[in-house]
Amino acid sequence: MNAHTQRSSIAGAAGPIECALDLPGDQTPRGLAVLAHPHPLFGGTMDNKVVQTMARALLQLGWRVLRFNFRGVGGSAGTHDEGRGESEDLLAVIAAQRQPGEALVLGGFSFGAYVTTLAQAALPEADRPERLLLVGPSTQRATPAPVPVERTLVIHGEADDVVPLSAVLDWARPQHLPVVVMPGVGHFFHGQLPQLRNLIVRSWH
């Protein structure tokens, strides 16, 4: 993401997982934020612009931010597994990078948001994240796991042509989960990334 991004790999169930870590300037980090990227079969990688925008917002908020490539993407071994193996990848990254007792945030964009819900539900109660950040969550091909309403920020574009807003509301409604809607914005937030970043920062406190 910048010249200070630390590149590494960790061991996953399908082989090495490629990671990129950014630190929040000179301050002591509030904790670890792990971000998951959009669908690998449609060009999704950890360098996706929406994921990088989410990372910049969390860095601004004081978190150390780890992005990673799902299995079969970039330098990560393995093949696409429709969310199941990708959830294992996310859990492996958390296990390798989280320090004992460290605060945790999980976030994802599109397919990555779907995988994030699966992973957080699989964590033991005591290890679950203090916040979830779900941007443009994929809800229509497979149903995300339920999320802790009071700790989850969902942001979606009104004009999303990949994941219709109606599909996200159908998922959110039974949980009484609020959804922040950006008017006139499509799935990839073209021309609206600065606004997305500011919205995440404003909504965090």
Please provide a written account of the structure.
The protein has helices spanning 49-60, 84-97, 111-122, 165-172, 193-203, and strands at 6-12, 15-22, 32-36, 64-68, 104-109, 131-135, 152-157, 180-182. With 205 residues, the chain is of the alpha/beta class. It has one domain (6-203): Alpha/Beta hydrolase fold, catalytic domain (Rossmann fold), CATH 3.40.50.1820. The chain has an 8-stranded mixed beta sheet, with helices on both faces. The two termini are 25 Å apart.
Q: Structural class of the helices, strands and pairings? A: alpha/beta
According to CATH, the fold-level topology is Rossmann fold
N-C termini distance: 25 Å
Report on the biggest sheet.
Answer: 8 strands, mixed
Helical amount among residues, as a percent range? Answer: 25-40%
Beta-strand percent range: 15-25%
Total number of beta strands: 8
Order of strands, main sheet, comes to 1-2-4-3-5-6-7-8
For the record, the CATH architecture stands as: 3-Layer(aba) Sandwich
Low-confidence stretches: none
Rg computed from alpha carbons, rounded to a whole number of angstroms:
15 Å
* Secondary-structure element series: EEEHEHEHEEHEH
The best one-word shape is globular
Please work out how many helical segments DSSP would assign. 5
CATH superfamily: Alpha/Beta hydrolase fold, catalytic domain
User: CATH first level: which class?
Assistant: Alpha Beta
